[in-house]
Design goal:
- The complex is a heterodimer of chains A (228) and B (266).
- Chain A is mainly alpha-helical.
- Chain A is 78% helix and 0% strand.
- Chain B is an all-alpha fold and 266 residues long.
- Chain B is 73% helix and 0% strand.
- The longest helix of chain B is centred in the middle third of the chain and has 40 residues.
- The N terminus of chain B is likely disordered.
- The chains are: A mainly alpha (228), B mainly alpha (266).
- At the A-B interface, α2, α3, α5, α7 and α9 of A face α3, α4, α6, α7 and α9 of B.
Chain lengths: 228, 266
Amino acid sequence: MPSPEVLATLLAVGTALSLDSVTVGQGMLSRPLVGAVLAGWVCGALWPATVAGVFLEAIALETLPVGASRYPDWAPAGIVAGTIAATVTPFAPAFVLALVGGLVTGWVGGQSMVVLRHANGRRIARARESLDDGVPGTAGRLLALGIATDAVRGALVVAAGLALVPLSALVAARWTTDATTTVAFGAVSAMMVAGSATRQMFHGAARARVLFVAALAVGTLLAWGRWA
Amino acid sequence: MGALGVSTDAAVTEPVRDALPLGTRATMLARCFVVQGTWSYEQMVGPGIAYAIEPALRLLPGGVGGRPYREALARHAQFFNCHPYFASMAVGALARMEIDGEPPAAITRFRQALCGPLGSVGDRLVWAAWLPACALLGLLAFGLGAGGAGAVAAFVISYNLGHVALRAWGLSEGWRRGRQVAAALGGPVLRDGAAHIGRAAAVLAGLALPLVVGRVLPGDAVEGALVLAAALPAGYVVARLHGRIHGWTAALTLLVTLLLVSLVVL
């Protein structure tokens, strides 16, 4: 289990990355790869956290953060997945548990975004008269409140997700499936979603399917060379 | 007559019509990065647009608190929906129309008409093409041997080069073209860019997926090949079920099943 200092750092980083999801910037610092790598760096175990982040990113490829659509909040997901992968042993169950913990946290984060958006709507409705009168500073105050509320939301989701870390350690200690099968199963689950996302990218891009198959052959040969 | 050939308010100085003061432009651009700060289902980015456009409205006759300022601010605090990166283009164009003194009704109609195109172009170009392409570049970097920092750098730097450039260009183009901004949306990059980036993403995906698997399952060619052989058809099935099931929920279901089997059955 990470120390209180490490947990506080993870909470701060997770909160900052959560803001990037929608309210501030949207520079994709909120993607799971970024969050997991930062969590691994904070916890002092970069490699397992990076692996978890890469596979969670493969899953996140499918998600398009389009306007009113509902999607997982990947920033807390990345932080939680990276923390589980970096702090729980052995690696194989930790890898799968990191993906599970990340996805569950992401789902909770997505639900909390819906709550936040409704809260923003109510706040704007209360300020309607002021907005309609063009009172200077009203829009700025609404944005500041919205961003502050989002920060609180992000912090709560990250904190809730980090509570899964000790639970993951307990589960990993009782894990019975062998390491190779466990990692392979986790990889299949993530690559399945990445494959699905790739297929959706083909829409409107002529010859993309052919290019994908050709590149897949080259990539497989390169990987095969590594295996051989 | 203003630069766009429409009648203008004589109280707004000519230099302002040609070029926004640098400080005003920089503040507007910075504010565009928080345009979704109070996103809601009812108003979407409306209040964010008002906040981003406000520095330009200070240049209207009467300044802050003047009648033109307040009327314009109220106009732009209404419902507005577009891709967040293309909000800067809307902000630039609408600011230009306000400074040029175009009729309020025309500005409101134009504002409503902008929502659709700025949303669909952004979703197609950024969310459906640029984002996955850059994410796949990060995955490919990892697959080729980069560490966590290298993979993150490949993704975040490449992505934000496009992202920040798009926001800055959008504000500039919006201001320059005003109500003619739709012509900028018909440019070759925005019209065909998504298809080109989609093809690049297809190549990146083809290279990255096996290399990532190979990096995590080193020394076992059969296992790596089996992972790919299982994942790609399963991905095809998930893609066919798109709309009925999300990929991430399918993955979570599989992983939780493994978890339960590992804890309970064996």
